[in-house]
Amino acid sequence: MLMAALRDASWYDRPNTRSVKVWHVVADAGCRSRCGLRVLADTDGNAVPAETIRRPRCRRSGCREAWPK
Fold first, then answer.
1. Cα(21)–Cα(17) distance, rounded to whole angstroms?
2. For residue 58, what are the domain limits?
3. By three-state DSSP, how is residue 20 classified?
4. Rg of the Cα trace of the chain?
5. Order of strands across the sheet with 23-25?
6. Which stretches in the chain have pLDDT values below 50?
7. What pLDDT is recorded for position 7?
8. Number of domains in the chain
9. If phi over 0 gives left and psi between -120 and 50 gives alpha, with beta otherwise, what is residue 12?
10. Cα gap 9→49, rounded to integer Å
């Protein structure tokens, strides 16, 4: 089952908390997305089925190709 999760930016000094966050397709490793960014998929069941996510979706190469049609 294809899963989606939000990105983890907690290691930044001042993470952006103002803008809407996009959903990323989780890669096999669990904590990385298909586009290469770190996501919150490995803690407390933060990943959800990708079919349930409509917008906003990641449009970077890797995630873009993996989203279900």
1. 9
2. 1-69
3. coil
4. 11
5. 23-25, 3-6, 48-49
6. none
7. 84
8. 1
9. beta
10. 21
pLDDT of residue 5: 92
- Report how far residue 29's alpha carbon sits from residue 55's, in angstroms, rounded to the nearest whole number: 24
pLDDT at 60: 95
pLDDT at residue 13 in the model:
84
DSSP label at residue 1 = -
Considering the entire predicted model, what is its pTM?
Answer: 0.82
C-alpha dist (Å) from residue 63 to 14, 20, 36, 43: 25, 17, 9, 20
Q: d(Cα 48, Cα 5) in Å, to the nearest integer?
A: 6
CA dist 48 and 4 (Å) reads: 5
